[in-house]
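Query form — protein Oligopeptide transport system permease protein

QUESTION: What is the three-dimensional structure of this chain?
INPUT:
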Amino acid sequence: MLMYTLRRFLHMLPVFFGATLLVYFLVFATGDPIAALSGGKPMSEAVEANLRAQYNLDQPFWVQYGLYLKNLLTLDLGQTFSGQAVNDVVARAMPVTARLAVMALAIEAVFGIIFGVFAGLRKGKLFDSTVLVLSLVVISVPTFVLGFVLQYVVGVELRWTTPTVGSEAGWSDLILPAIVLGLVSLAYVIRLSRTQVAENLSADYVRTATAKGLSRPRVIIVHVLRNSMIPVVTFLGADLGMLMGGAIVTEGVFNVPGIGSVLLDAIKIGETPTVVAVVSVMVLIFVVANLIVDLLYALLDPRIRYA
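ANSWER: The structure tokens for Oligopeptide transport system permease protein are given below.
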């Protein structure tokens, strides 16, 4: 297991550096950050030269990227154009987005697996058909539409919660945004769990376990669920990174002061240092989440360690 963990960690490194290089190149290839900062207004040569030197924009691309990586490895994310440390901006916003993503992940894991398993056990019955139709509807509707509908119904009409999140963003304030953020993935978890359970119920090893006289609850819990959960766990782990990215839309709808709002504001004003820094943090979270998923996968199925 130790060698497998080391191999997976070494595989993670080129993915992280390759992704940050691509992000850095794409962000800075989309335009001149100093021109975006000035908003088309004239700027003195001295001020422009000072800004380019401050953000290393007067250096060749590879030198800029090397300096960026050097700062990144020392946990220095640079400064915003307004002079704030990006570390401080990320440190204020990231806990809010992390709470939102964890709540969304918990919702989709708990309800997705429960509904998916029961649908798989009742394949072809009314409950299975109803769950399949509802999950298809959720998948078909864009997240921002689901957000606006639930915001209006739950927050405005029923008044069960506030339509938008305040600056404090407590756990209770984030329940509705977390439901919206996790709904689409919840539908995928339901369908994935349902398919896996339905397929494994007809597998030879399940028939053998039943023929040996094991009770149905034991067959389902020990044999069916363990094998059915491997792809579900893989999906949930990879989805954590997707939730962090998807939070941009949900945070915008509910005015959540998280990392998605920071990224959206930075993109609007062309603040490239903040965009690159925030995206790099998201890439790091994504690759670490995938590393954890691979380790869990190896624990669930030991054959993976020797593949």
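ADDITIONAL NOTE: The CA atoms of residues 91 and 259 lie 9 Å apart.
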